[in-house]
Design a protein that fits this description.
- It is flat and about 85 Å long.
- The chain folds into 2 domains: about 80 residues; about 50 residues, no CATH class.
- The protein is mostly helical.
- It contains 4 helices and no strands.
């Protein structure tokens, strides 16, 4: 039993440190990417904007500010999870439609004729069968 407890504690500690290092490395990579995008934005601005539009050159922090402003104005910070769930819902409805309804609508022209010939009688027989099953249970 003590070996089991030691194993559990050891695996929990390993999982904690693995998760901690993943988050730490992810954070470091995120910071590096932010600085890289800021630098690229600064270089592109200083290369293109003064020649094309007669604008002045900008410093690194101004380029980072331009990126943040563009994100606020055009991208927002919302959670886009609802888009995925609505796509899943649409896909689920679409597959239901494809599987069930297309078969029924392809034979729709026979529906009225069936009800004239057999419909009411067949329905009454079905109801009697169901009632007999319910009474026997």
């Amino acid at each position: 039993m003590s070996e089991y407890i030691e194993h559990r504690i050891k695996s929990k500690a390993e999982n904690f440190f693995k998760g901690f290092f993943k988050v730490l490395i992810g954070g470091i990579l995120l910071i590096i990417l932010v600085f890289l995008f800021g630098y690229i934005t600064m270089r592109l601005w200083n290369w293109l904007m003064p020649d094309l539009f007669g604008l002045g050159e900008i410093q690194y922090w101004q380029a980072l500010g331009v990126l943040i402003l563009a994100k606020i104005l055009f991208g927002g910070f919302g959670n886009h999870k609802s888009n995925r769930s609505s796509r899943k819902r649409y896909k689920r409805c679409k597959t239901t439609y494809d599987n069930g309804f297309k078969k029924d609508f392809s034979n729709w022209k026979y529906y009225d004729k069936f009800w004239e010939d057999q419909g009411e009688k067949a329905f009454e027989e079905y109801v009697k069968q169901k009632q007999a099953l319910d009474e026997s249970e």
